[in-house]
């Protein structure tokens, strides 16, 4: 017995003396736009890899960097080219500009991967992509599906050394199945439940250096093969991050992620992590003017570029139009650069001799807009042709719908000067006369009418000049009194001019005359409110009476201008109601007299864990107190909608970040009742909400912020938002589709001659699907669908053209399935099934 005890004791001591082996993933992060000293960096990497044959690195370098490296250091480039697909190197993030992902559209994420992979393979054809790993919080909930569609096998959901802008939630052990929003699963290394945020740091987790404390925590948690990570900034000259040879910290072994997954880790797990968007604990300088402008510029370009591609498909199918692929590639390139994570976290940093990141984003998005505007105009001009049929019209208006669902909306179209001061006759493509209204606009006429446009297609309207002397309505009526009531068939809204033009009553007539504006409490619907810390108090737009002017009041559109003040600074808000439209549009401009401090307090040290720019209750916000019973927040994210589990959005320190981001919309919906209010934003920003605190949209922060700069007020604050009072949850109320309508408005063109016709090219037939993209590629049409609101049932899709074949492909373009199609009356029908939040891409031949 004693001998057995001695043996067991010896075994125990041996185990204690030889703890489980630790591993470390090293690498480089940055690029020609981030940080990559071209003159020496590539040669340095080559030399260090040669000097340290046991060193392994992950490469997260902006793909465009290699163009410059090839030109400026060709010998170093050739040496690295030989190593690129070898056993020491792995390319882990091929995205073109390393975007955060959670703050941009899902389609943008796909293009970041497609263009980035193409660029890297142009330089290094043998490089493949198996593991997604990044050094910034460049994650979002839909990534498992996107990664799998690109052929990835593994992912890493941690970023231990660059958490300035946030981090993922801590969960699980050695491996998890990262389950995306559509149910797709990818094997992943998480930020372990035992991987804490580093003490006395505001940018690191404990995994950044394989410290003894970190490795002990991993062992105590039962992690058999603990692994740490740090992708170094490309400007650093450290070589192996935690030492080399016998000096490697913690006796760790350098590994590539793919080797860790396949040869070292436990290899599989039954731990499914259903990753929510709220597992993204991220926080940028929401509300600062520079961030507002960046987010708005990116949003405008995102909308324009997908609409330009879709318009070109319609023009191609109608008359053979093709754009120059190089132009569209350049438009995507400059948009992708504007989505670079550095542009959002360090907008005031100088990028080059021409200015800061913010300056570059303006140039880049202007370039994207210029190209895409040209493509849309060329697509429309391609419809200019002599009509083969005589319709006795004197002009034609063509309305284009880039969505996959039919739309009936109010159009306002500026007509040529020859239609001024004459009576008109307007008819649809069936030559039925339709009602309209006109208003004088300078020397021209603006025409209002209800347009009905088929899914992903266009409708044509004919217009005739009848006789001189048309009675034209003009706006500009001043409103006197303390209240003003505006009303159409959907809403009755009472504005309280004595309290800054806030909304005293918002009655939705077709929702049982439901009153949405809360009738009691300290906050008012539409109120501007924030803490002006130099004054030491909250200020509100309700403190000062407002003026109102009726800009437009016809049968189709009602437009009001509210002029008020917030803390003596004047603001103007334009409110628009369109006939038949659930959406109420707001266009806010605050004309600041000077820079003032707005936030919880005056920030002194941006490295502090406690931060003045976190708690949005203190920022200037637009508030929406509504009469809803125990509502809960739903919010969209790229290819996702998240049901919030947060009690509130309030936090004030780096280590307590909560997800409070509005990408396109949030919906405040009753859980036991049937009413809800959706809020749409024209840019990615933050929202606030909590017990006894209403839903708020962040409008302005001013003060010191992340990385030290003073995020000043430098001009007017300009932002657009919209409200949709409705019944039912977001999916039943088609809020995702309503958001798409706002972001992709109906387009119009005027023609002297055109076919009086209506055509649909893609009819999604109330499936709940969306057309994420439709583009021309190598003479074929690529159509990508996203299941935003539907179920997993088989659904019929109608394509308004005869096709020889349809292939479902992955995001690399590889054929997944040849679809069975049915040709009937010149149209193609096929059935499609995919889960909620699923994606499918088709090539139409």
In short:
The protein is α+β, with helices and mostly antiparallel strands.
Would you write up a description of this structure?
The chain starts with a helix and ends with a strand. Mean pLDDT is 94; it is low at 4-18. It folds into 4 domains: 21-282, 7-stranded beta/alpha barrel (Alpha-Beta Barrel), CATH 3.20.110; 395-468, Immunoglobulin-like (Sandwich), CATH 2.60.40.1180; 477-742, Beta-galactosidase, Chain A, domain 5 (Distorted Sandwich); 758-845, Sandwich (Immunoglobulin-like), CATH 2.60.40.1180. Helix 9 (289-319) runs parallel beside helix 12 (357-381). The protein has a 10-stranded antiparallel sheet. It has a 6-stranded antiparallel sheet with strand order 27-26-32-39-38-35. Strands 1, 2, 3, 9 and 10 form a 5-stranded parallel sheet that branches. It is globular, with a radius of gyration of 29 Å. The chain is 20% helix and 34% strand. The protein has 845 residues and is of the alpha+beta class. The chain is built from 13 helices and 53 strands.
């Amino acid at each position: 017995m004693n001998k057995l005890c001695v043996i067991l004791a010896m075994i125990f001591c041996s185990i204690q003396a030889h703890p489980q082996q630790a591993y470390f993933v090293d690498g480089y992060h940055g690029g020609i736009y981030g940080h990559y000293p071209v003159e020496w960096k590539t040669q340095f990497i080559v030399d260090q890899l040669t000097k340290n044959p046991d060193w392994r690195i992950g490469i997260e370098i902006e793909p465009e960097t290699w163009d410059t490296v090839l030109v400026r250091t060709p010998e170093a480039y050739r040496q690295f080219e030989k190593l690129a697909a070898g056993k020491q190197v792995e390319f882990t993030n091929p995205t073109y500009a390393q975007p955060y992902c959670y703050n941009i559209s899902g389609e943008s994420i796909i293009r970041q991967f497609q263009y980035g992979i193409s660029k890297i393979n142009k330089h290094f054809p043998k490089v493949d992509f198996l593991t997604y790993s990044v050094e910034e919080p460049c994650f979002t909930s839909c990534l498992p599906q996107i990664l799998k569609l690109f052929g990835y096998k593994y992912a890493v959901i941690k970023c231990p050394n660059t958490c300035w802008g946030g981090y993922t939630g801590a969960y699980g052990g050695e491996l998890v199945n990262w389950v995306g929003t559509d149910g797709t699963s990818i094997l992943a290394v998480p930020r372990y439940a035992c991987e804490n945020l580093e003490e006395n740091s505001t940018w690191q987790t404990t995994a950044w250096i394989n410290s003894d404390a970190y490795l002990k925590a991993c062992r105590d948690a039962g992690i058999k093969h603990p692994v740490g990570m740090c992708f170094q900034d490309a400007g650093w000259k450290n070589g192996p991050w935690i030492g080399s040879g016998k000096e490697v910290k913690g006796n760790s072994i350098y590994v590539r992620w793919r080797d860790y997954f396949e040869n070292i880790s436990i290899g599989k797990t039954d731990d499914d992590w259903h990753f929510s968007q709220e597992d993204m604990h991220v926080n940028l300088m929401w509300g600062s003017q520079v961030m507002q402008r960046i987010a708005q510029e990116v949003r405008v370009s995102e909308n324009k570029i997908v609409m330009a591609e879709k318009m070109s498909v319609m023009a191609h199918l109608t008359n053979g139009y093709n754009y120059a692929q190089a132009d569209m590639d350049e438009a995507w390139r400059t948009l992708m650069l504007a989505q670079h994570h550095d542009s959002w976290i360090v907008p005031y940093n100088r990028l080059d001799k021409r200015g800061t990141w913010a300056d570059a984003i303006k140039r880049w998005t202007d370039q994207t807009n210029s190209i895409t505007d040209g493509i849309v105009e060329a697509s429309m001009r391609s419809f200019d042709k002599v009509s083969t049929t005589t319709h006795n019209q004197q002009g034609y208006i063509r309305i284009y719908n880039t969505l996959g669902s039919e739309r009936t909306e109010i159009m306002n179209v500026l007509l040529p000067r020859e239609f001024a001061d004459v009576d008109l006759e307007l008819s649809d493509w069936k030559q039925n006369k339709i009602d309209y209204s006109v208003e004088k606009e300078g020397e021209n006429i603006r025409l209002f009418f209800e347009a009905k446009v088929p899914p992903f297609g266009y409708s044509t309207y004919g217009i005739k000049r009848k006789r001189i002397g048309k009675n034209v309505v003009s706006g500009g009526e001043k409103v006197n009194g303390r209240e003003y009531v505006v009303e159409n068939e959907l809403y009755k809204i009472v504005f309280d001019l004595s309290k800054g033009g806030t909304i005293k009553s918002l009655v939705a007539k077709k929702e049982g005359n439901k009153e949405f504006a809360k009738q009691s409490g300290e906050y008012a619907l539409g109120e501007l409110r924030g803490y002006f810390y130099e004054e030491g108090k909250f200020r509100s737009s309700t403190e000062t009476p407002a003026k109102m002017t009726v800009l437009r009041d016809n049968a189709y559109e009602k437009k009001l201008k509210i002029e008020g003040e917030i803390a003596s600074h004047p603001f103007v808000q334009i409110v628009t109601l369109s006939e038949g439209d659930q959406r109420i549009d707001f266009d806010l401009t605050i004309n600041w007299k000077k820079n003032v401090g707005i936030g919880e307090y005056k920030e002194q040290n941006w490295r502090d864990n406690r931060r003045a720019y976190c708690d949005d209750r203190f920022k200037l916000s637009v508030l929406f107190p509504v009469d809803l019973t125990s509502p809960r927040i739903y919010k969209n994210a790229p290819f996702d909608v998240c049901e919030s589990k947060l009690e509130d959005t309030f936090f004030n320190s780096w280590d307590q970040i909560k997800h409070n981001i509005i990408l396109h919309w949030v919906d405040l919906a009753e859980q036991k009742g049937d009413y809800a209010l959706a809020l749409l934003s024209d840019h990615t920003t933050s929202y606030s909400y909590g017990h006894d605190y209403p839903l708020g949209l962040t409008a302005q922060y001013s003060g010191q912020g992340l990385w030290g700069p003073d995020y000043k007020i430098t001009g007017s604050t300009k932002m657009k938002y919209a409200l949709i009072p409705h019944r039912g949850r977001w999916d039943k109320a088609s809020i995702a589709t309503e958001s798409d309508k706002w972001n992709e408005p109906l387009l119009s063109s005027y023609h002297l001659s055109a076919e009086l016709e209506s055509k649909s090219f893609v009819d999604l037939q109330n499936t709940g699907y969306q057309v994420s993209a439709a583009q021309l590629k190598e003479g074929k049409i690529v159509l990508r669908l996203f299941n935003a609101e539907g179920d997993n049932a088989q659904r019929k899709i109608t394509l308004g053209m005869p096709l020889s074949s349809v292939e479902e492909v992955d995001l690399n373009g590889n054929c997944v399935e040849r679809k069975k199609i049915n040709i009937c009356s010149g149209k193609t029908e096929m059935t499609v099934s995919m889960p909620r939040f699923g994606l499918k891409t088709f090539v139409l031949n």
